[in-house]
C-alpha cells in the first residue's frame, strides 16, 4: 500500500490508470505519461495550435519549437520527477486506447490544506463528445479518493465557455474573478476561479455524469 512518506516522497495514488468511463465517443481512461508519448504529444499539440494557443501560458520560442518531439523528453523528465515528489499528477487522456489529450493535477499541497489545481486539453476533433468531462470526473475521484485531497481549483478564461461547461457538469462552482491572473498568448488575462471540495461530490464525480446520462460505467 502506498502511503505518504516525507523522506521517500511517495505520491499516494501514483502511478495509476483510471477508468474507463464510457462516453458517446468511446471509452475514456487516464494513464501516466510515458517517454514514448513524444510523437503523439507533438503531433496533437502542433495540430491543435489554433485551439490551444488562446488559452495556454505564454512560452518561449515558437509553438512548433516548443512542441517538437525533442521537447518531450525533458518535459517528461520534469513531470516524472514532480510526480515522484508528490506535487504533480500528469495523465494522458485516452479514447479507446488512443492518445487524445492530457489532464494534469498540479501544485498538490498537503497538511491542513490538501488542495491542488486541475487542468486539461483534448484534441479539437473530439471536442463536444464528453471526453474532457469524463476525464476530469476520473481525475476528481482519484484526487478525492486515493490521493487524499480535499479541494480542487480550476481557472478558466471568461471566453472559454466550453471549458467552463466541463467543470460545471461535474459540480465545480464559480468562486470569483482573478483579474490579470496569467500571462496567456502575450497578454495578462482575467480568469474565473472554479472550485470543488470533497463534501460537494455526491457518491463520485463519475456517478454524477452517469446519473445525468452523460456517461456509463460499461
Assess the beta-strand content as a share of residues: 25-35%
What's the number of helices? 7
| Mean pLDDT, all residues | 93
**Lateral strand order in the biggest sheet:** 1-2-3-4-5-6-8-7
The dominant shape is globular
What is the CA-CA span between the terminal residues?
28 Å
Radius of gyration: 17 Å
* Count of DSSP strands: 8
Structural class: alpha+beta
Low-confidence stretches: 1-9
What is the N-to-C succession of helices and strands?
EEHHHHEEEHEHEEH
The helicity comes to 25-40%
Summarize the biggest pleated sheet.
8 strands, mixed
Characterization of the model:
The protein has 218 residues and is of the alpha+beta class. The protein is built from 7 helices and 8 strands. The protein has helices at residues 38-47, 49-52, 63-66, 72-85, 131-144, 161-170, 205-211; strands spanning 18-23, 26-32, 89-95, 98-106, 115-122, 151-156, 173-184, 187-197. β7 (173-184) and β8 form a beta hairpin. α5 packs across α6. The two termini are 28 Å apart.
Amino acid at each position: 500500500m502506498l502511503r505518504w512518506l516525507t523522506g521517500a516522497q511517495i505520491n499516494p495514488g501514483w502511478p495509476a490508470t483510471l477508468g474507463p468511463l464510457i462516453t458517446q465517443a468511446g471509452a475514456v481512461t487516464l494513464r501516466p505519461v510515458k517517454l514514448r508519448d513524444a510523437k503523439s504529444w507533438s503531433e496533437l499539440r502542433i495540430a491543435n495550435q489554433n485551439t490551444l494557443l488562446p488559452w495556454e501560458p505564454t512560452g518561449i520560442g515558437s509553438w512548433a519549437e516548443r512542441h517538437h518531439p525533442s521537447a518531450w523528453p525533458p518535459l517528461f523528465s520534469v513531470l516524472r520527477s514532480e510526480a515522484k515528489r508528490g506535487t504533480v499528477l500528469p495523465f494522458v487522456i485516452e479514447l479507446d486506447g488512443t492518445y487524445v489529450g492530457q489532464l494534469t493535477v498540479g501544485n498538490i499541497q498537503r497538511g491542513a490544506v490538501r488542495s491542488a489545481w486541475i487542468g486539461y486539453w483534448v484534441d479539437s476533433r473530439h471536442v463536444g463528445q464528453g471526453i474532457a468531462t469524463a476525464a476530469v470526473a476520473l481525475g476528481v475521484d482519484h484526487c478525492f479518493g486515493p490521493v487524499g485531497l480535499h479541494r480542487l481549483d480550476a481557472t478558466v478564461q471568461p471566453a472559454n465557455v466550453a471549458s467552463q461547461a466541463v467543470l460545471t457538469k461535474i459540480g465545480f462552482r464559480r468562486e470569483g474573478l482573478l483579474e490579470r491572473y496569467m500571462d496567456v498568448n502575450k497578454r495578462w488575462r482575467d480568469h474565473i476561479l472554479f472550485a470543488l471540495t470533497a463534501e460537494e461530490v455526491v457518491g463520485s464525480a463519475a456517478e454524477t455524469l452517469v446519473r445525468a446520462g452523460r456517461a456509463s460505467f460499461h
